[in-house]
From TrEMBL:
Gene3D superfamilies: MFS general substrate transporter like domains. The lineage of its organism: Bacteria, Bacillati, Actinomycetota, Actinomycetes, Kitasatosporales. The chain crosses the membrane at residues 30-49, 61-81, 93-115, 121-138, 150-172, 178-197, 232-253, 259-283, 295-313, 319-339, 359-378, 384-407. It is a multi-pass membrane protein. Its main location: membrane. This is MFS transporter. Pfam families: MFS_1 (PF07690). The keyword Transmembrane applies. Residues 26-408 form the Major facilitator superfamily (MFS) profile domain. Residues 411-431 are annotated as: Disordered. Keywords: Cell membrane, Membrane, Transmembrane, Transmembrane helix.
Amino acid sequence: MRSSGPPDASAEAVAGPGQAPFNRWRYTGVFLLLFLFGTETFIVSPLLPTLADDIDVSTTAAAQSVTAYVLVYAVTAPFLGLLSDRFGRRQTLLAGAVLFLLSNAAAALSTGLALLIVSRALAGLAAAAAGPAIWAHIAETASDRVRGRALGLGMALFSSGQVIGVPLGAALAGAAGWRSAFVALAAGTALAVPLLLRQVAAGVAPGTSSTGNGMFRAVFAAWAHPALRRSLAVNTAFHAANLGAYTFLGVVLVDRFDLSVSAVGLVGILVGAGGVIGSLLGGRLGDRARAAGRHHFPFLPAWGALLAVGIALSVKGPGIVLALLGVTLWFVASGGFVIDQQTLAATAAPDLRATSSAWLTSTMYAGTGLGAWAVGAFDDAGTGTLVVGAGLAAVAALAAFAVNAGLRPSEAAPKDARTVAAPVEGEPTRP
């Protein structure tokens, strides 16, 4: 049955799982937005010294704009994810995209710290509205056979924001001033909006809920679901090891190899590249495992184990080559883990897709804060990174077995998401 969206909006058609090819072209709007979100998340770091000097504040004060973005996202995402689950993806996606455009325009116009912080907080709110809706939209419109691949490509493009978007933004800022980077983000978002209007159907997707109990109970409903509750707990531990330890990676590499600041900055390319590889690999491996009838998330524990190995190599591997190999493995594990988690969130409770995805991000940020605090409690950053990072990664790997064991058969091989979006009229249909 066709949706009530505009005539050329994507329609929902019933098909058996695994029968539809992966048409990446119908996701260009959300993929572009994910790339811009990935760039936005990391863009302030290279701009910070110039930005702080221009608005005449300390770098510490200017860094509050980063805190504003992350904090607002973490707090509001579950509530905005619920709105997406109840009222539809299109509305929250478009609202988030428009607010993202306006917030970046406001950042470009900032002449003082107050407006900069407010604009960054609004950008966090925009990403919190659109992000969970994007993951839910991809999950419910891609067929079972290619769902992991579609989510993996989306996460790879998010990671590419760090690998490609941030260097491009920094180069643009060097040539035309730091404000030009935010102008470029606003312009990119303006390009994404028409694609979203064309490619994201109106209405509430099958399997979502437009009614329910009070908002507070509904927001926390994911924690009442056994598989999701275990998954969110593992997510917290994994990212305490992953991003919490990453906070001190630069310090560790400088202490071990006496690297310059610019050389440490280049390590970020390995971080982003590892994330891209892990996202694409995780999506394909997961799809193949499910197609072969194996357990739905057979690689979830493996990502935790690989993370522990990567962190250990980064901190203790003899020679810089092995240390940098460890960094790459570290973020291959991170990318693969995130895709398994997004797939689980999309399939374990279909009526909570966006809310569950939002909780993944919120627990990621919570784990990051806890991990950074725990590593910082050690006198030596290398020791703290090894003990907390590798230790919690091992804990996450073991706990992931409990996530798999707790999945019911219907969750291990979901039959709920049989709706796959029909191609837009006139849209390319290449696989």
